[in-house]
């Protein structure tokens, strides 16, 4: 069961549990349903976007447009609902259609024009951010019975914690994402494209369709993440969520997905998101540390995990070579 | 054995008792970031004010991001703090998290900026009155020039920003009815030193020097410092030939005042936390509801207020 490929994921899980235990030792209050509920709710939008990013990175690509698409979504929904008086559910459907086709177009350019994902999604990042500014440069408040109802909906844990609608949405996205990656043909194709696109093509994997599908999925989940963010702040603001794509990449890599693609787990990304949330929670509980420590710790974790992954790749390559030597 | 148990019980209950009787408050403070010198000074002063009162302050810097502020507020609630201070980065999107705080009966006080939310979600807001700041500056000038003719040039803040609009309005209110004082030129200097200097240079060229410019009104001290340089480079004497009045009271303007190159400044105090803590203690101890808006004092400083001493007291606050 424990293969070397899963080692980074298990390491991340162990780090999370150990770190959480250490936090609880120092602040017993941190072992409460409230903190757990907060971890899920506060990181819901990041988690949803990070699932999309997991697929992109598994395929060996990158999507830098996520943060901007989230901001665009929130401004778009806020203006539609807040100023134009559209029903939120219609606005959600419209914005998901926009963000999904936005992702699909980026996928098409990556596949059929042969432009690196980094460049295409960088352009997408500027485009989406610019579009958000175009709609409104001010923070637009939303107030609508449907939005209030979704916001006010939660299950109360014993101890005062809340499982909010946003947290449930994130958990659902993770479960669906994990089964798509692990149990469907599309998921298998994503791993194949990320492992080696040439051999995938030779094996008959529809690389073009898969690539477009991956970026469309990432666009869809960015839109969904934007909806979660809109619910989270009940407003839209074009300056919001700058750099969320980088947090998502960090969550994916800390969760054990290989940055070069082909190996990793959606469940690992969940752990990666929780680790980031835990660091922030610890800093708030401590109350004297500079919040920039979040970045420093995440930077150190990233270095550690990249080195760990490199080591594992090197180790399994050597074992493969040894095996071949024995055969010869 | 029994004795040991008894001793333990006593020690334990003593522990509990001391935890209750020590009236020290724990207050969480969610700050926007440290984007300007004033903001950094506000953070420093808040920490000082908390220490003075024996308040345990939990500080969280949001790095200009609302999501970080919401996370921090939720974290404070989970921790069970006694109160929360927030300097909100934007005006919208606070209702859900403030409702959570209200359900836990944790009072929230807004610092420095107002928000768009029902008033019952926060205890009070401590901010300055920007119109009043402009008014204080204008009233000083009215008193200082008396009946003499005085042409004023105005260095506005960033176009469309609320301090620029309000500080202009307040100044105009103060000089209304004093026909000897006229604003002859008014342009934006974007709140910066360089722009302030550039705009002042063009004013001097256009107006032909001290005969036609009697005073400069700058919406912040940084632009005033730029204007002082421009005036000096034109061979004129700032502070005497051309009077300088501005707003904010940052340390550098006191240096200029000590050198006789600036005349007056109106303080935008970085001490928003002091009045906030006072209101909070009154609320928690005596159940006294504060008003929904606590206006900070807009104090006028002139050369008569020992500018060097003020400079010394302000220079280490992080401006």
Automatic annotation (TrEMBL), chain A:
<keyword id="KW-1003">Cell membrane</keyword>
<feature type="transmembrane region" description="Helical">
    <location>
        <begin position="89"/>
        <end position="109"/>
    </location>
</feature>
<dbReference type="InterPro" id="IPR001851">
    <property type="entry name" value="ABC_transp_permease"/>
</dbReference>
<feature type="transmembrane region" description="Helical">
    <location>
        <begin position="115"/>
        <end position="135"/>
    </location>
</feature>
<keyword id="KW-0762">Sugar transport</keyword>
<feature type="transmembrane region" description="Helical">
    <location>
        <begin position="163"/>
        <end position="181"/>
    </location>
</feature>
<keyword id="KW-0813">Transport</keyword>
<feature type="transmembrane region" description="Helical">
    <location>
        <begin position="64"/>
        <end position="82"/>
    </location>
</feature>
<protein>
    <submittedName>
        <fullName>Simple sugar transport system permease protein</fullName>
    </submittedName>
</protein>
<keyword id="KW-0472">Membrane</keyword>
<keyword id="KW-1133">Transmembrane helix</keyword>
<dbReference type="Pfam" id="PF02653">
    <property type="entry name" value="BPD_transp_2"/>
</dbReference>
<feature type="transmembrane region" description="Helical">
    <location>
        <begin position="212"/>
        <end position="232"/>
    </location>
</feature>
<feature type="transmembrane region" description="Helical">
    <location>
        <begin position="292"/>
        <end position="315"/>
    </location>
</feature>
<keyword id="KW-0812">Transmembrane</keyword>
<feature type="transmembrane region" description="Helical">
    <location>
        <begin position="39"/>
        <end position="58"/>
    </location>
</feature>
<feature type="transmembrane region" description="Helical">
    <location>
        <begin position="6"/>
        <end position="27"/>
    </location>
</feature>
TrEMBL record, chain B:
<dbReference type="Pfam" id="PF13407">
    <property type="entry name" value="Peripla_BP_4"/>
</dbReference>
<protein>
    <submittedName>
        <fullName>Simple sugar transport system substrate-binding protein</fullName>
    </submittedName>
</protein>
<keyword id="KW-0732">Signal</keyword>
<feature type="signal peptide">
    <location>
        <begin position="1"/>
        <end position="22"/>
    </location>
</feature>
<dbReference type="InterPro" id="IPR025997">
    <property type="entry name" value="SBP_2_dom"/>
</dbReference>
<dbReference type="InterPro" id="IPR028082">
    <property type="entry name" value="Peripla_BP_I"/>
</dbReference>
<feature type="domain" description="Periplasmic binding protein">
    <location>
        <begin position="28"/>
        <end position="287"/>
    </location>
</feature>
<keyword id="KW-0813">Transport</keyword>
<keyword id="KW-0762">Sugar transport</keyword>
<dbReference type="InterPro" id="IPR054837">
    <property type="entry name" value="YtfQ_transport"/>
</dbReference>
<comment type="similarity">
    <text>Belongs to the bacterial solute-binding protein 2 family.</text>
</comment>
């Amino acid at each position: 069961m424990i293969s070397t490929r899963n080692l980074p994921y298990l390491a991340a899980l162990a780090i999370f549990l150990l770190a959480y235990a250490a936090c609880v030792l120092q602040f017993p209050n941190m072992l409460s349903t409230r903190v757990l509920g907060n971890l899920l709710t506060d990181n819901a939008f990041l988690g949803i976007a990070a699932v999309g990013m997991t697929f992109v990175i598994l395929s060996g690509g990158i999507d830098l447009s996520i943060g901007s698409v989230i901001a665009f979504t929130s401004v778009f929904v806020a203006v539609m609902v807040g100023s134009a008086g559209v029903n939120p559910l219609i606005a959600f459907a419209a914005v998901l259609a926009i963000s999904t086709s936005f992702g699909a177009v980026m996928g098409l350019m990556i596949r059929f024009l042969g432009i690196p994902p980094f460049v295409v999604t960088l352009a997408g990042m500027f485009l989406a951010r610019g579009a958000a500014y175009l709609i409104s440069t001010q923070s637009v408040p939303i107030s609508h019975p449907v939005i209030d109802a979704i916001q006010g909906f939660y299950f109360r844990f014993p101890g005062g914690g809340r499982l909010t609608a946003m947290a449930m949405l994130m958990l659902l996205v993770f479960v669906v994402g994990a089964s798509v990656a692990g149990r469907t043909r599309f998921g298998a194709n994503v791993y194949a494209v990320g492992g080696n696109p040439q051999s995938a093509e030779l094996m008959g994997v529809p690389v073009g369709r898969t690539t477009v599908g991956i970026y469309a999925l990432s666009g869809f989940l960015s839109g969904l993440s934007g909806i979660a963010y809109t619910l989270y702040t009940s407003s839209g603001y074009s300056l919001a969520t700058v750099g969320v794509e980088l947090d998502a990449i960090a969550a994916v890599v800390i969760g054990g997905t290989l940055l070069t693609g082909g190996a990793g787990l959606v469940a690992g990304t969940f752990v990666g998101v929780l680790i980031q949330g835990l660091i922030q929670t610890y800093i708030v509980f401590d109350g004297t540390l500079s919040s920039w420590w979040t970045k420093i710790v995440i930077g150190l974790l990233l270095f550690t995990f990249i080195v760990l992954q490199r080591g594992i790749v090197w180790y399994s390559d050597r074992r493969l070579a040894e095996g071949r030597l024995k055969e010869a | 054995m029994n004795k040991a148990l008894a001793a333990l019980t006593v020690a334990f209950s003593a522990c509990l008792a001391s935890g209750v009787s020590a009236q020290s408050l724990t207050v969480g403070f969610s700050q926007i970031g440290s984007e300007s010198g004033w903001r950094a000074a506000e953070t420093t002063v808040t920490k000082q004010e908390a220490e003075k009162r024996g308040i345990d302050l939990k500080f969280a810097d949001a790095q200009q991001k609302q999501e970080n502020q919401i996370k921090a507020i939720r974290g404070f609630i989970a921790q069970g703090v006694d109160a929360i201070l927030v300097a909100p980065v934007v005006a919208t999107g606070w209702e859900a998290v403030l409702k959570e705080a209200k359900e836990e009966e944790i009072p929230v006080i807004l610092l420095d900026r107002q928000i768009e939310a029902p008033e019952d979600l926060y205890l009070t807001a401590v901010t300055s009155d920007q119109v009043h700041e402009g008014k204080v500056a204008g009233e000083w000038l009215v008193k200082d020039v008396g009946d003499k003719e005085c042409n004023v040039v105005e260095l506005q803040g960033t176009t469309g920003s609320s301090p620029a609009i309000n500080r202009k309005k307040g100044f105009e209110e103060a000089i209304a009815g004093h026909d000897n004082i006229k604003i002859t030129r008014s342009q934006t200097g974007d709140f910066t030193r360089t722009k302030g200097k550039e705009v002042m240079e063009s004013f001097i060229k256009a107006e032909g020097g001290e005969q036609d410019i009697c005073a400069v009104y700058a919406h912040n001290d940084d632009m005033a410092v730029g204007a002082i340089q421009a005036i000096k480079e034109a061979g004129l004497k700032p502070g005497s030939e051309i009077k300088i009045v501005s707003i904010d009271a940052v340390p550098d303007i006191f240096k200029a005042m000590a050198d006789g190159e600036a005349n007056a400044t109106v303080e935008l105090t970085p001490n928003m936390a002091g009045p906030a803590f006072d209101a909070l203690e009154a609320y928690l101890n005596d159940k006294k509801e504060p008003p929904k808006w606590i206006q900070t004092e807009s104090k006028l400083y002139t050369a008569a207020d020992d500018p060097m001493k003020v400079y010394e007291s302000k220079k280490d606050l992080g401006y």
